[in-house]
Amino acid sequence: MLLTCALRKSLSCFALAAVLGLSTGCQKEELLENQFASPVAIEGLTHGQPIEGQYIIVFKNNDTVVSEGKAGELSAVRTSALKIRQKLYDASGIEPADVSQVYEGVIKGFAARLTEEQLAAIRKRPEIAYVEQDRYVYLSKASKAIFTKFGNTKDNGNGKNKPAAPEEPTPTPTEPAPAEPEPTEPAPSEPTPAEPTTPKESAPAAPAYTTITPVAGEQVPWNIELVGYGDGTGKTVWVIDSGIDTDHPDLNVDLNRSLSLIYQNPSVEDGYGHGTSVAGIIAAKNNGSGIIGVAANATIVALRVFDDAGAGTLSRAINAVNHVGNNGKPGDVVNLSLGSGMSTTLDNAVKTAAAKGILFAIAAGNSAVDCYESSPARVDAPGVYTVSAMDNYLRLWERSNYGAAVDFAAPGVNVTVTTKGGGIGGGAFGTSMAAPHVAGVLLLRGTVFSQGTITGDKDNTPDPIASVK
């Protein structure tokens, strides 16, 4: 896709998208002029605040459903959606420069800046399922750099030095969600020995995982030790976040599949630090330096939706999940350490991708409220795991969201992480740091096991503690 756009730089990006229905690569060429307002340049805005005049438009799902592995069908869906979009642009007077995101495949539609007249016209169109207002989404700093560049540890992550209360901007909570999953997968039924032809399928047992011994010089922080770890070589995790430090010696980043959804900034480099910290918890290498991740050595694909100030939009997050739904494979894992308030579109994107066998680890949020009103934490679907944060005493972190939507708890207080600039740091906190522990477990096992439950759960149903076994 990127090569296609590179060969056509003389064309406008939007014109190319109109011919091929492939907008994402073109967005990376920085050729659209009047993009959505960047939250980094606006002070005094709050997490989840609506963006005035910016909307997410979703088409009715009335065209071909894409079958697994049939690229031609995806192309047909894109062509159909392209025709609908162009018809709407023409009928409503929407200019190419006002279109910020184009959704193809899993979710079909677009995000754009609209006048009140254009919005009213769009709402009346028979092709439209619904319209959502776009919102600002913000991240926190992930850690205090207590030690860096793989230097001597000043705090070994054992929880004795407790972090201060987080400064993390907190997602607004959301609607009732998943019933707690069983800690283990059901055992598969016996195949019929007399029938060698196509035995009846049954739920497969969780696969065994490859255990590893940390190489001399490797640090195993308390948070990783508690959850457990193994060899994630050959497995893929999609980290939808602020990008990744692609030169970090402890991370295995796939640059070919990584992508920035930030217009006029095609780089996936992490200028904020949050995504790099998330990635290390999931997949830091077992290489004799730095820390070990839960699924050590796994391949990380960075989908960047937050800028250098940790600011992003709901429409970007939706496009990132949509991208995974179109390009991910069954068994891949997605980490979503973000929240947006209630969003039907984001929820549906997650559910649709999960239905393809792609697994999700999602942060519950840091508002100390029930997350029944927080997307995507509220999603209740197979393969979707919402994660609360606990401390090293196995207690619910005081700022963690809770509720029926939460499936598991994982370490989220005073954890050790990889940091941008090639180092490691201690004192990270938040459900943003808890979710990647579960992402690592999902990479290794395809499901999540438990070793006991937390104390202090505010909904009176203690969350199981996530574990690889």
UniProtKB/TrEMBL annotation:
Coiled coil: none annotated. Residues 149-164 have a biased composition (Low complexity). InterPro entries: Peptidase_S8/S53_dom, Peptidase_S8/S53_dom_sf, Peptidase_S8_Asp-AS, Peptidase_S8_His-AS, Peptidase_S8_Ser-AS, Peptidase_S8_subtilisin-like, Peptidase_S8_subtilisin-rel, S8pro/Inhibitor_I9. Keywords: Hydrolase, Protease, Serine protease, Signal. It comes from the Bacteria. Residues 1-17 form the signal peptide. Gene3D superfamilies: Peptidase S8 propeptide/proteinase inhibitor I9, Peptidase S8/S53 domain. One of its GO terms (cellular component) is extracellular space. One of its GO terms (molecular function) is serine-type endopeptidase activity. The active site is at 241 (charge relay system), 274 (charge relay system), 432 (charge relay system). The keyword Flavoprotein does not apply. Residues 149-205 are annotated as: Disordered. Residues 54-139 form the Inhibitor I9 domain. PANTHER family: CEREVISIN-RELATED, PEPTIDASE S8. Belongs to the peptidase S8 family. This is Aqualysin 1. It comes from Pontibacter diazotrophicus.
